[in-house]
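Quick check before the chapter quiz. The format below is the same one you will see on the exam, so make sure you can read both the input and the output lines.
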Amino acid sequence: MPKNSFAPGNPGKPQGARNRLAFRVFEDVLAHWCEPVKPGSNMCKGQAALEHVHRDRPADYLRFAGALLPKELSIEKATAGMTVSDWEDTIAKIREVLNNRDRQQLEQLEQSTAH
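Here is the expected output.
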């Protein structure tokens, strides 16, 4: 008869063991990410990897970036008590920022193709 690992009296993994392991792996990955590409370089390995993927495999880059975003975005606290006028002002500001960004990107594209 197999031993039931969830039987009373069997403690299983020590409490927090999985979190400690995940934390150590994260620390190791972060340390590697932050290492310079070459001695004296201002670019770290993580930045270089992102540049490479962005340039050579843009779909993978977007998939990676999307995976980092939260699955849900809660804005309830930030918008609590906002009036219709506040919403209209906020939407106008967002549109202005997006229009300015689009204009800047278009200018950069025009400059890069002009050379």
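If your answer matched, good. The mean pLDDT is 85.
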